[in-house]
TrEMBL record:
GO terms for molecular function: ATP binding; ATP hydrolysis activity; ATP-dependent protein folding chaperone; unfolded protein binding. SMART domains: HATPase_c. ATP binds at residues 33, 37, 79, 84, 92, 98-100, 121-126, 173, 339. This is Chaperone protein HtpG. The gene is htpG.
Length: 629
């Protein structure tokens, strides 16, 4: 018999190293992971047997069995699921196909405590065996393969593993763990029984523990054993809601998602009538490392009449809810359904819209009843939810209601205020919801465009996420109130009356200033007018209602699209000394310099780049020296 030695893929090696050396606070989870894998293998066999029942080979009672040998510190887990071929063993146990792995590994700090937590979020599956064992042997025979086509995979170190052909009498996989000296507790019946009960009660097939039989076979010296089923063995979602405890829902989530972090919320529903299905949807407690990678397949685990059909059935969720995990069990779809059929099925469309409503309900409820959880949710998934209004027009207002913002009235930098909060604080006579787009909070808060809003105590949303402006354009209005960019168009006259400080205004000089500036800047601005926006700054640029903002234009240009430049309006603050000086200045050269300065300041306030920064600096210094002289 030949024994082949193989090296692990780099990522697998790194992960294995971590498993072996990490101080793991919650070591028992290795059993959950291995039982989960065994139960997945049973699901896969059932699925394959839909097309070819002979794969059962007269053994269709799928189950998981655990043998303990406390004397030698050995734990063995058997399943009669689908098993693996030699190629599958190499592929599945020698490499990690999970996307985001190298990204995740780079994120590790070397601090064992922090890393253990990160590993928990990442989910390590099979490799978690190495948390408790220093040697792991996997013997497996693929369903449909002959007894002499089985394989043994052995790993004792971190760098390599061996593979050999063996004979195995029955189909499925047996995993043998040789426990580390400090992990011998995991061979104790009492301990394992309670762990299995905790983690696998909701698994759809029996998990049984080997125990000494009450009656000994008289003809043999060997002890006689039988198996004691520990778990409930009914798939959780098929049970009535009223009978399921919170921790059972949580454990089930961890089982299907291979996630170690408790979910924030769930929603379990049975629908009967025109369509007949059960859904169990979860909001995870943290974002996966690859949330923004659109290539990664994700979605619900699809069952049809209790039979597992596929992981990641993405057709049941719109992309902006791609963070939702869970199970859908349908009685309407055909068992031989494929991803292509799902794409064109009207039943799928109806289920999807019903699920979207459930998810929005669940999020609204969380926002209302558990604000801490909702903050976590928003932090982790807010950016994805923001894709909603563009993708799902019918629900855009409900989705926008779930958004959280930093506004000029928010304390701190965390986005905690909803549009409804904003509307409830609107001033008498205020008809619009105002927002300002900026690169970051500091520049937003210090923006000249906010001056009149501050003075008149009108709240403004501060938008600093890359896609905020695009999102808001799709939302367009909330509770009948238009969302308005404060750098565009005219402001409501009635609201900003206070800003105009009549006493300070010098009408003739401001008319003159406007005339001069208009002439000097005719290539750069559409027109020049007096402002309602400013109280302290001399000037600002204002864009047409339908113009692309500088922020958007920069983004489109960065994406390689050349955008036409719409000339802005220059608004000037007539009571500002610089403007007054300009109005009364008779020297042409000086007027041009002052106008240049005024314009460049407005460009900077708008968050744009100056065309000629050196000239700006020179003019500024000139003015300063004059002042000092
Ligand atoms: N008992 C088993 N029977 C058959 N195949 C198995 C068994 N255990 C593991 N595998 C195969 O090995 C693969 C890798 O398992 P592993 O637990 O590392 O990752 P996973 O279950 O795919 O994902 P996750 O990282 O989310 O746990 C599985 O996808 C499966 O194909």
């Amino acid at each position: 018999m030949t024994v082949e030695t193989h090296g692990f893929q780099t990522e697998a090696k790194q992960l294995l190293h971590l498993m072996i050396h990490s101080l793991y606070s919650n070591r028992e989870i290795f059993l959950r992971e291995l039982i989960s894998n065994a139960s997945d293998a049973a699901d896969k066999l059932r699925f394959e047997a839909l097309a070819d029942a002979s794969l059962y080979d007269n053994d269709s009672d799928l189950r998981i069995r655990i043998d303990l040998n406390p004397d030698d510190g050995i734990v063995t887990i058997h399943d009669n699921g689908v098993g693996m071929s030699k190629e599958e063993v190499v592929e599945n146990l020698g490499t990690i196909a999970k996307s985001g792995t190298s990204q995740f590994l780079q994120g590790l700090s070397g601090d064992q405590k922090k890393d253990a937590q990160l590993i928990g979020q990442f989910g390590v599956g099979f490799y978690s065996a190495f948390i408790v064992a220093d040697k792991v042997v996997v013997e497996t025979r693929r369903a449909g393969a002959a007894a002499d086509q089985a394989v043994r995979w052995t790993c004792e170190g971190e760098a390599e593993y061996t593979i050999e052909d063996i004979e195995k009498q029955d189909r499925g996989t047996t995993i043998t763990l040789y426990l580390k000296d400090d992990a011998l507790e995991f061979a104790s019946e009492l301990r394992v029984r309670s762990i299995v009960k905790k983690y696998s009660d909701h698994i759809g097939i029996p998990v049984a523990l080997r125990k000494r039989a009450d009656e000994q076979d008289k003809d043999s010296d060997e002890p006689t054993y039988d198996y004691d089923t520990i778990n409930n063995a009914t798939a959780l979602w098929t049970r009535p809601r009223s009978e399921i405890k919170d921790d059972e829902y949580q454990e089930f989530y961890k089982h299907i998602c291979h996630d170690f972090v408790t979910p924030l919320a769930w929603s379990h529903n049975r629908v009967e009538g025109k369509l007949d299905y059960t859904s169990l949807l979860y909001v995870p407690g943290h974002a996966p490392v690859d949330l923004y990678n659109r290539e990664v397949s994700r979605g619900l685990k699809l069952y049809i009449q209790r039979t597992f059909i596929m992981d990641d059935a993405s057709q049941f969720l719109p992309s902006y809810l791609r963070f939702i995990r869970g199970v859908l069990d349908s009685n309407d779809l055909p068992l031989n359904v494929s991803r292509e059929i799902l794409q064109h099925s009207p039943a799928v469309d109806s289920i999807r819209s019903a699920l979207v409503k459930r998810i929005l309900d669940m999020l609204e409820k969380m926002a209302k009843e558990s604000s801490d959880d909702y903050r976590t949710f928003w932090r982790e998934f807010g950016a994805v939810l923001k894709e909603g209004p563009a993708e799902d027009f019918a629900n855009k207002e409900r989705i926008a209601g779930l958004f959280r913002f930093v506004t000029t009235k928010t304390e701190g930098d965390e986005a905690t205020d909803s549009l409804a909060d904003y509307v409830s604080r609107m001033k008498d006579g205020q008809e619009k919801i105002y927002f300002l787009v900026a690169d970051n909070l500091t520049s937003a808060r210090n923006s000249a465009y906010l001056e009149a809003f501050r003075k008149n105590d009108i709240e403004v949303l501060l938008l600093t996420d890359r896609l905020d402006e695009w999102t808001i354009a799709h939302v367009a209005e909330f509770e009948g109130k238009e969302l308005k960019d404060i750098t565009k168009g005219e402001l409501e006259e009635s609201l900003f009356a206070d800003t105009e400080d009549k006493a300070d205004k010098n009408d003739s000089s401001s008319t003159e200033a406007i005339e001069k500036i208009s002439n000097l800047l005719k290539d750069k601005v559409e027109s020049v007018r007096e402002t309602r926006r400013l109280t302290d700054s001399p000037a600002c640029l204002v864009y047409a209602e339908d113009a692309l903002s500088p922020h958007m234009r920069k983004m489109m240009e960065a994406a390689g699209q050349k955008m036409p430049v719409d000339k802005p309006v220059l608004e000037i603050n007539a009571s500002h000394p610089l403007v007054r000086q300009l109005g009364s200045e008779s020297d042409e050269q000086r007027s041009a310099e002052l106008t240049g300065l005024l314009y460049d300041q407005a460009v900077l306030s708008a968050g744009e780049q100056l065309e000629n920064p050196a000239l700006f600096v020179k003019r500024l210094n000139q003015l300063l020296f004059e002042g000092a002289a």
